[in-house]
Amino acid sequence: MADYVAKGIDISEFNGDVDIAGLRGKVDFIIIRCGYGSNYTSQDDAQYYNNVRKCQAAGIPYGVYLYSYAQNTDMARSEAQHTLRLLQGKKPLYGVWYDVEDVSLPSGEQLIDNCVTYCTELEKAGCYCGIYASLSWWDSRLDSPRLDRFDKWVAQWNDTLDYQGAGMWQYSDNGVINNRRFDMDVAFKDYPAITQGKEDTDMTKEEVAALARQEAQKVYDKNEKLYPRIPDLPEWARGPVEEVYKRLGLVGTGGKADETRIDASQTYVRALLVINKVLDLMEGQPKA
Fold this sequence. Notes:
The protein is of the alpha/beta class. It has 2 domains: 6-214, Glycosidases (TIM Barrel); 225-284, no CATH class. It has 8 helices and 10 strands.
């Protein structure tokens, strides 16, 4: 793989609710889909705002991209307005990218016109803007000197990149981090330096802290309620735990009508196993 300065991923609502805090130290940046097509709220990416807030809370710089369906420059201009509406004045450190790959897109000069229109509108708003497309599109449909001044994000799922002058490279659609699959990217440029650190945020310190607490609570709840009921316990623990509840007269969190609900963590289960052994030892001792 060619030398790069940063490694990241790109995500959209199709990745679901991503644990972005868990990606700290594993990626340097994240490119987030903001939406697709013209400026309609129904075409906003359902996870966009959530992903932006989590990147800010985790301290991971991000960029955004919009998936294009534009058939003419009026639609491309509407797609630019769509992006700017969602950015809300923010200028992402890893730029804004125009995703042109859909089979319905026009060819020839019309496609080039659309790209120039979109990127120019974003630049007028003070954003760093580039274009995303596959290697085959860059070599054919987008091979125009009119696009030379715009940065290029090239998709080629391969060990090597067969394109000169790319700013970013999407080298895989099948990377795995924390047991989740992602599109994988590398940046050949220091984008935060290029964009001069002008990213804005509408989140206060208190809001960032609240979001961090929210994400931490999700992790806590997941671990603390690993085994909701006794039948959910692994086989090696089920018998001893049930015996402790019986011998000590314990009642599950659901009350008598739901005695098996215990909402147990791994630590709690192991503590019950120790208690079971202690009870066995105590019952085996002669009474004083």
